[in-house]
Amino acid sequence: METEEVKYRKIIHVDMDAFYASVEQMDNPLLKGKPLAVGGSEVRGVVSAASYEARKFGVRSAMSGYMAKKLCPELIFVRPRFDRYKEISKKIRKIFLDYTDLVEPLSLDEAYLDVTENKKGIPSATLIAQEIRKRIFEEVGLTASAGISINKFVAKIASDYNKPNGQKTVNPDEVEPFLEALDVKKFYGVGKVTAERMYQLGIFTGADLKSKSFEYLEQHFGNSGKSFYNLARGISYSQVKPNRTLKSVGAERTFNVNLSSEIFMEERLENIANELERRLQKSKIAGKTITLKIKYSDFTLQTRSKTLPYFISDKSLIQETAKELLYQEKLKESVRLLGISLHNLNTEAKKAVVVQLKFDF
Questions:
Q1: What is the pTM (predicted TM-score) of this model?
Q2: What's 347's DSSP letter?
Q3: For position 119, what pLDDT does the model report?
Q4: Which of the residues are catalytic?
Q5: In what order do the strands lie in the sheet with 354-355?
């Protein structure tokens, strides 16, 4: 017997509410209800996550600790505990898998679920999302928000609609009106620069974007024009992919005091290479391209890369290559952060040989 082709998928985007900060508040009751920033400090570093109490003052992720403290003098800084966040994330993912195997994690705190056909036989994706959020709260102790719609694009936008601890369903016949009312900066692929260009062209909402022809959008936005044309109509064919391929593995450090000498940086690179090797071995991953990330005291970023003819995961070769990249050209300013990442991984190839090189000293 032939099954009828599914016209619309049922996609849920689950997004944990202020995940890192909420975990810290859950584990330490003294932090509950207080403005909290995970990562950085008022002197150095960058905010990784902010509690909702801190967000009321304008504190946001990726903001410098100095600026965050300026906006919110009562802000409390705590160091991130990624092992703890991973532990909680695994518990949440187990709940997802009770409903469907089609789970695509985007990070520790958000994921897409395709529940068109689900293990519970529940016909309503809205009810599934409610049940999942209830279980996360009861079994983990944290709140989550969700967006439900016919594709990943609309579901992700919808999950932000009733945050925190809420959800929104955009039914098939509601998709286009929903998108028409949105500011174009909410659309996937429309960053700050693109949004400004759209505003200059008189494109402020999804309705404005939808009114433009394919040729017009292609003329002004090149290859992205086709994507914008489809998204304005709620058309997105991206599937929920359970096994997303890892593109890179890295480690970085922000220093308490800016470094101006490469000699002092070499020691820091050794520590970073040790951490990167640990992560690579834990995941059984190797790569060919080493990238050195340099953040200067004026917050400008620079990257330098080198691709080797073989896969590596050994800290000695990673460190030596990073050192070579450090001396590739003169530093522009004193340095506040160094990072090393490995790209071109063997996860992208069916067969790969890991080369472990040892040096005689």
A1: 0.72
A2: G
A3: 94
A4: 110
A5: 249-259, 335-345, 287-296, 301-312, 354-355
